[in-house]
Specification:
With 522 residues, the protein is α/β, with parallel strands linked by helices. Helices cover 34% and strands 23% of the residues. It has 17 helices and 23 strands. A 9-stranded mixed beta sheet has the order 13-12-14-15-23-22-21-18-19, sandwiched between helices. Bound molecules: glutamine (GLN). Glutamine binds next to strand 19. The site of glutamine (GLN) has 10 residues, from strand 19.
Length: 522
């Protein structure tokens, strides 16, 4: 029977509830417990697949093809357990399941109501996810009091009476002069109590450590013990949070509240990664994209951090606006063309790809990056009036087409999603980087290479070295004698702090050997 740890947020969004939840998971694992983690996103969408990365940050993709919130990236990086689309509960999913049951007649003539039918659906889902684990952490997206979250909060209130549960409330303590203001937290706790839930532990997000007077005040007004008011200050790196929480005694409080005998964490391997974040070198990687907002390319940033830490290199990221490229490519040591949808910025991205190819600037193309490099090669080396049909439906030479038109319609839906096994040619650069010839990577795309052009592209030096087992999609190309690799998948989603991704390691290594600035050629 799993123990529930519910993490709610108050005062405002964007406080780092995902990183806190992931860090609690990491800390409890370090104490020797088995942990799984799930997220409630109270929005009405079924999943994050249709949501704009500009508004919500990147869409994270799981092995089973689940398109989920970027917090799942934190969970996988910090906790490392396999997660599925079922671990993400949304209003859309819960209601569509209840409505399906209603249509099937499962409710035997009853009036179908939020309580008990919707709340039971929520409780049953959480219970089945937690089975077999010591703990299930449930992060509740949004802020307490949101109207969309009501059914979920009610289900959690019921669950609190039925199961063992600790409720952790993350709030914000604004600084006014030297004062750490507690009023917003007090109001947020009142809001929570109105829904029948009181917090067991308060985690206070503040630029600095909480003062004893602040802890005392929160303890008094919010009915938690003083040692259950935990500081969540701004740290150098998010990866420091698990060790910080251990120092604050969060693992002790959690175990005490469940009446467990207290185990101490062994953080050795995790802190080894933190130590390796000490750097001796620095490189700049340019990301040529449409959105410069940090969270849009979160997993790419993390993958670069992991690879940099392993190579004792600080990786600075330079945002390059694809719609406005001037001479900002000259001072980068490597370039990444990330994934994306839609025509905007495509021309600038192609320009940057040409620059990287001609000047041998180490380059990694991810998904759309792969596709645009094929277009660039067809235009500039084959001299064709070529494009992707995503950008020009009537192009004379459709080198990138929907995968179902390329005869790879095995997935049913239009989006090719989730983990797919790919065989690599034995001696290619990519196989050397991975040190294996079969890999599994995650996908999220509709378009791909038009196989009719493969031969001609190979004649001008673009070697296709990876073939998907399931449908023969050509997944990877490389160019000899330089680091110029395009992949139709998203390797950034599988990079872990203690296990940097081989393609990102390869890119950073190649960048370290390329300090000489290349000339601009376009
Ligand atoms: N828009 C492209 C496609 O649908 C690329 C998608 C992506 O980069 N994730 O295939």
């Amino acid at each position: 029977m799993p123990k529930y740890i519910v993490v709610t947020g108050g005062v405002m969004s964007g406080l780092g509830k995902g990183i806190l939840s992931a860090s609690i998971g990491n800390l409890l694992q370090a104490c020797g417990y088995s942990v799984t983690i799930s997220k409630i996103d109270p929005y009405v969408n079924i999943d994050a697949g249709t949501m704009s990365p500009f508004e919500h940050g990147e869409v994270f993709v799981l092995d089973d093809g689940g398109e989920v919130d970027l917090d799942f990236g934190h969970y996988e990086r910090f906790v490392g357990v396999p997660l599925t689309k079922d671990h993400n509960l949304t209003t859309g999913k819960i209601f569509s399941s209840v409505i399906k049951k209603e249509r099937r007649g499962d409710y035997l003539g009853k009036t179908v109501q939020i309580v008990p039918h919707v709340t039971n659906e929520i409780k049953d889902t959480l219970q089945s996810l937690g089975n077999g684990y010591d703990f299930i952490i449930v992060e509740v997206g949004g802020t307490v009091g949101d109207i969309e979250g009501m059914a979920f909060m009610e289900a959690l209130r019921q669950l609190r009476g039925e199961k063992k549960m600790v409720e952790i409330h993350l709030t914000h303590l604004p600084l006014a002069g030297i004062d750490q203001k507690t009023k917003p937290t007090q109001h947020s706790v009142i809001q929570l109590r109105k829904m029948g839930i009181s917090p067991d532990i308060i985690v206070g997000r503040c630029e600095e450590l909480l003062r004893v007077e602040t802890q005392r005040k929160l303890s008094l007004f919010c009915n938690v013990s003083e040692d259950s008011v935990i500081s969540d200050p701004t740290l150098n790196s998010v990866y420091e949070l698990p060790s910080h929480l251990a120092k604050e005694g969060l693992h002790q409080r959690i175990q005490e509240k469940f009446n467990m005998s207290v185990r101490e964490p062994d953080m050795t391997s995790w802190t080894k990664f933190l130590d390796s974040q000490e750097v001796t070198k620095e490189i700049t990687v340019g990301i040529v994209g449409k959105y410069s907002q940090g969270d849009t390319y979160l997993s790419i940033m993390e993958a670069l951090t992991h690879a940099g830490a392993k190579l004792e290199t600080k990786v600075k990221v330079k945002w390059i606006d694809a719609e406005n490229i001037k001479d900002d490519l000259q001072d980068v040591n490597a370039l990444i063309t990330p994934g994306g949808f839609g025509k905007r910025g495509a021309e600038g991205k192609i320009k940057a790809i040409k620059y990287a190819r001609k000047n041998k600037v180490p380059w990694l193309g991810l998904c759309l990056g792969f596709q645009l490099a094929v277009v660039e090669m067809a235009q500039n080396e084959l001299g064709l009036n070529a494009n992707s049909t995503e950008f020009d439906a009537n192009t004379e030479h459709p080198v990138i087409i929907p995968h179902w038109e390329a005869g790879q319609d095995i997935m049913g839906g239009t989006m090719r999603l989730g983990a797919i096994d790919t065989d690599l040619e034995k001696n290619c650069q990519t196989a050397k980087l991975y040190s294996k010839t079969t890999i599994s990577e995650r996908h999220r795309h509709r378009y791909g290479l038009n196989p009719k052009y493969k031969k001609r592209l190979e004649e001008v030096g673009m070697h296709f070295v990876g073939t998907a087992q399931v449908d023969n999609t050509l997944e990877i190309f490389e160019i000899s004698n330089q680091f110029f690799i395009g992949v139709q998948f998203h390797p950034e989603l599988k990079s872990r702090p203690l296990l940097p991704h081989p393609l990102f390691l390869g890119l950073v290594k190649a960048a370290l050997t390329q300090y000489d600035k290349a000339k601009q050629v376009f």
